[in-house]
Amino acid sequence: MTDTTPNLDRVSDPAEATPMENMSRDWNYHPELPLDNPSIFRWPPNPAFLAGWLARNWLTLSERVLMLGLALLLYFLFYPSLETAQSFAFGWIARIYVVNFAIIALTAGGLHWYFYIRKGQGNKLKFERRAQGKNNSLWDFNDQVKDNMFWSLGSGVAQLTLFQVLTMWLMANGYSPTITFSSNPVWFLAFLVILPMWSAFHFYWVHRLLHQPVLYKRVHSLHHRNVNIGPWSGFAMHPVEHFIYLTTLCIHWVVASHPIHLYFHIVFQGPGAAMTHTGYEDLLIKDKRRLALGTFYHQLHHRYYECNYGNQEMPWDRWFGTFHDGSPEATAKTRARKKRMFG
User: What whole-number distance in Å separates Cα of residue 74 and Cα of residue 228?
Assistant: First the structure.
């Protein structure tokens, strides 16, 4: 589950990774509270804010630009051509599976190694004080990381590959509309910008569905074992949740797109989930914030459950009364809502 909105609620001095005023009894670090509203869907529209949002996301070395770069590499070097996908065959399907396994493993594994094994950033900008869980029967393997690896690399990679294979087959056989950059350059670029917004819209509503008591207890609670999140937790879900989560890719069945759009979407939903679940707000290089990673917005969801179902880019939590701004008042309201839902 992915939120790549740049965090605008940061401390004023980027070199101060964990300032004392941003520490509390409950958190190792948190941004300025209460959380502001960085959504672009505000009224009246603010052209300067929108221009700044586009520049931060697409004209700098942002998380989205890195994901698009990976999608381009996958398109030109690793995934089979669309023509190959005209008929189902073991060879090209297996190739996609291996590539998807590798990108999930390298992204989540690399981030886990850097932040939790090498401890390359220590506790700077880390939300939780606790380490990843071990020797606890809560986890299927008595180990949080091993448990999350199992679900991410098992059901996660398999279903991501399934949706991708089916979508490529539909595209290759003309059942889904396709475009090229030369045939429609404006839509080609616009859809790259729209896809993360679509993902955020879809995520909010399916996430609300997964928090209904029956689905939560039987399905979504597996992901929510991760109160203290880490890179491997982002794509660790029950198989039913993987299926629901990945239906976001069905937009390519009905909206004209290119394989590059599909691969960007694949990266956004898969490796992107590991990036946004690092448990750290940003990657620091020489004490400077260089890459936005997790958000306190979603960290609050993993702590308090019945709030912040979406991400900061879409306004749904604010509009429908499920927004937690990090304040004690919002915590009390969220706990009361949880009690009403679950009794």
Answer: 32
For position 39, what pLDDT does the model report?
86
* Residues in CB range of 83: below 8 A, 6 or more apart: 172
Q: How many CB atoms lie under 10 A from the CB of residue 14?
A: 14
pLDDT at 9: 41
CA 284 – CA 289 distance, rounded (Å): 5
Q: What is the DSSP string of 168-185?
A: HHHHHTTSS-B--TTT-H
Number of domains making up the chain: 1
Within-domain flag for 44: no
The SS3 of residue 280 is strand
Please determine, for residue 10, whether its predicted confidence score (pLDDT) is greater than 60. no
Compute how many other C-beta atoms are within 10 angstroms of the C-beta atom of residue 106: 12
Give the residue-averaged pLDDT of 172-191: 98
Q: Give me 142's structure tokens.
A: 């008595």
In a domain, 216, yes or no: yes
| Helix or strand run (H / E) with residue 159 | helix 157-172
Give tens-digit pLDDT for 260-298: 999 999 999 999 999 999 999 999 999 999 999 999 999
Lookup: tokens for 141: 């393997």
Q: Which two tokens stand for residue 17?
A: 């990774």
Distance CA(39)–CA(36), nearest Å, equals 9
Q: Two tokens at 113?
A: 């190694």
For residue 31, tell me if it sits in a domain: no
Find the radius of gyration of the CA atoms of the chain: 20
251 inside domain = yes
- Mean of pLDDT values over 161-184: 98
Q: Which residues pair with 288 in a beta bridge?
A: 285
In terms of residue numbers, what domain contains 85?
57-294
Q: Are 248 and 266 in contact (CB under 8 A)?
A: no
**Residue 43 has what pLDDT?**
83
